[in-house]
């Protein structure tokens, strides 16, 4: 890992100090309001709680947003987020071959409807589709449309979300029930079981019967009880027959055979639908003679009302937003919100997400054993770019990394290698975590290569910035490697006044990136390092004199976002 900054020897010492830091966290910035109202108090949440909420429920906090949220209670913040209009990707992806990664990153970093966008990203890692599919490759517009459906429905009702996803031609192609024909024994045709299997295993109920708190139910011999078997998969697969493209130039059988519209919901071609009686999960009966729509409604209603859904889906969302190993009590509280939002409504996702983000295990650093999660590399980068109002000259987030993140980070929007996402929710890395019975999903894309490429990318992107005098700096040691209209610059102006006092700067960056949880030894090491950087102007970009205060900001930031303490979200 390269460390090419102003004083290499000093930075190596600081890096060593950071990697050896331990112990508890220290307080956040002075006046941060750590004693603000708790999740159930109805009072102002305070800065530290606001920083935690924004870390978990957005693509990253900004100081302004922390200060604004700090004066609100949780209910007010959630209501304001839900009132914002959704930001859509498809208008920025006008053709099938248009790039959709730049629009995705631009929206993630700049959109105001952050809770909605963050929820959509979480759903995209649960209700997985991917461009790594022969039918979807080179159809960026269809993928953008699918993502927009997650944006529009990810904070709606789960039953509606299931319906939208199940009618999506993108999902239909990805899990191969697009043009899924009814069985014909004489012709050797069997209903495709792909979607039937995954909608149960990954999207709704899971493999094992669950208690209300997400723990597995056990039979008399102490073995987990399967939620369904092969017969239920086979029968559910017959439900998902007869679906294909909305007509796009043809009618009838010709439309079934040849049309390929990824922007509108699939439609039913009744003569290709299996109309025989079916018995699905839980013994639910679907009578003979039904249409595609009628059969799907019964199937989705049955899945939606299965008692596993609340704890199963709730745990997946907790993992994506807050912690990899939520306690059974945490899962149980979220499942209860799924089952009843307080007004008798099942599957109300705003209530579910609010329960997740305001639970005591989310609002405090304590919680279950092994609380916390490894930050996804994409979220480490969106956090950096959002903190410094990063943008390029065209008002976009267009950098090499937006196209190569899949290679360097092991992930990029809708580019998973499998339906199991970039990493499995139950992934265990051999060693102490597995011995302790803990899962660590994000470690599945963490290896010797990704550790180095992620660190180098975050370092390089940290050193592309503009100071308060609009001096453009790009590259380590304040040396400009040049820039163009697509260079995404951080902006340090808001932080430079804080940098006059190294301790104040570090305290505020602690609040911004770590919600005030930076270990005391780490704060001490960073403060000493920042103090050694001259506050007077330094050379930057040819003969321009860039401010040394900006250098202090960038150096401290880069060390934080590449520290192991920041890499783990507590």
Shape category:
globular
Query: Kindly state the mean pLDDT as a whole number?
Result: 90
Domain module count: 5
Determine the number of helices (DSSP H or I, runs of at least 4 residues).
26
Helix content: 40-55%
Strand order of the largest sheet: 7-6-8
Q: What is the tally of beta strands? A: 11
> Per DSSP, what share of the residues sits in E-state strands of 2 or more residues?
under 5%
**CA-based gyration radius:** 25 Å
* Class by alpha and beta content: mainly alpha
* Main sheet record: 3 strands, mixed
Q: CA-to-CA gap between the ends? A: 25 Å
* Unreliable residue runs: 1-38
SSE layout and pairing:
Elements: H1 8-19, H2 47-57, H3 63-70, H4 74-83, H5 101-110, H6 114-124, H7 140-153, H8 158-166, H9 169-174, H10 194-204, H11 230-239, E1 243-244, H12 252-258, E2 267-268, E3 278-279, E4 285-286, H13 292-304, H14 309-321, H15 328-339, H16 349-358, H17 360-363, E5 373-374, H18 377-387, H19 400-408, H20 432-435, H21 448-462, E6 464-466, E7 472-474, E8 490-491, H22 496-499, H23 502-514, H24 520-531, E9 538-539, E10 545-546, H25 548-561, H26 564-567, E11 568-569
Helix pairs in contact: 1-24, 2-3, 2-23, 5-18, 6-7, 7-8, 8-13, 10-11, 14-15, 14-16, 15-16, 23-24, 23-25, 24-25
């Amino acid at each position: 890992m390269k460390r090419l900054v102003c004083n290499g020897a000093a930075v190596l010492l600081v890096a060593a100090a950071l990697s050896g830091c331990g112990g508890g966290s220290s307080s956040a910035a002075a006046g941060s309001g750590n004693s603000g109202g708790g999740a159930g108090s109805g009072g102002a949440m305070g800065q530290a709680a606001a920083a935690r909420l924004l870390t978990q429920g957005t693509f990253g906090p900004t100081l302004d947003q922390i200060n604004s949220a700090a004066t609100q209670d949780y209910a007010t913040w959630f209501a304001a987020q839900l009132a914002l209009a959704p930001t859509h990707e498809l208008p920025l992806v006008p053709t099938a071959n248009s790039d959709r990664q730049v629009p995705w990153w631009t929206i993630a970093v700049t959109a105001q409807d952050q809770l909605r966008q963050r929820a959509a990203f979480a759903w995209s890692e649960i209700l997985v589709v991917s461009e790594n599919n022969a039918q979807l490759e080179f159809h960026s517009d269809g993928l953008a449309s699918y993502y927009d459906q997650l944006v529009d429905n990810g904070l709606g009702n789960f039953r509606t979300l299931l319906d939208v996803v199940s009618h999506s031609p993108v999902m239909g192609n990805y899990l191969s029930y697009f043009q899924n024909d009814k069985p014909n024994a004489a012709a050797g045709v069997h209903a495709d079981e792909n979607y039937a299997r995954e909608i149960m295993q990954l999207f709704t109920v899971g493999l094992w019967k669950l208690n209300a708190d997400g723990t597995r139910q056990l039979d008399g011999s102490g073995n987990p009880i399967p939620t369904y078997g092969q017969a239920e998969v086979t029968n559910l697969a017959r439900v998902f027959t007869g679906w294909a493209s909305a007509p796009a130039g043809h009618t009838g059988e010709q439309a079934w055979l040849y049309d390929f519209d990824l922007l509108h919901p699939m439609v039913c071609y009744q003569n290709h639908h299996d109309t025989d009686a079916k018995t699905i999960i839980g013994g639910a009966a679907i009578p003979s003679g039904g249409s595609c729509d009628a059969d799907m409604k019964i199937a989705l209603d049955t899945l939606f009302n299965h008692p596993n859904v609340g704890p199963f889906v709730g745990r997946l969302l907790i993992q994506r937003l807050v912690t990899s190993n939520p306690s059974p009590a945490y899962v149980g509280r979220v499942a209860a919100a799924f089952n009843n939002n307080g007004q008798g409504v099942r599957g109300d996702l705003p209530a579910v997400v609010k329960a997740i983000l305001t639970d005591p295990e989310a609002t405090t650093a304590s919680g279950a054993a092994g609380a916390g999660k490894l930050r996804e590399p994409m979220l480490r980068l969106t956090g950096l770019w959002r903190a410094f109002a990063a943008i390029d000259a065209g008002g976009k987030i267009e950098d090499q990394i937006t196209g190569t993140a899949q290679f360097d980070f092991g992930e990029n929007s809708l580019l998973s290698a499998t339906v199991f996402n970039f990493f499995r929710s139950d992934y265990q890395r051999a060693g102490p975590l597995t011995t302790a019975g803990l899962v660590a999903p994000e470690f599945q894309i963490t290896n010797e290569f990704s550790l180095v490429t992620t660190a180098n990318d975050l370092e390089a992107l940290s050193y592309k910035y503009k100071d308060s005098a609009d001096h453009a700096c790009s590259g380590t040691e304040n040396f400009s490697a040049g820039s163009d209209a697509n260079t995404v610059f951080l902006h340090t102006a808001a932080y430079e006044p804080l940098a006059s006092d190294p301790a104040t700067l570090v305290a505020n960056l602690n609040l911004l990136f770590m919600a005030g949880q930076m270990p005391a030894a780490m704060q001490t090491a960073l403060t000493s390092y920042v103090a050694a950087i001259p506050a007077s102007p330094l050379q930057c970009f040819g003969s321009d004199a860039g401010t040394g205060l900006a250098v202090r900001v960038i150096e401290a930031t880069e060390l934080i976002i590449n520290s192991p303490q920041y890499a783990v979200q507590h």
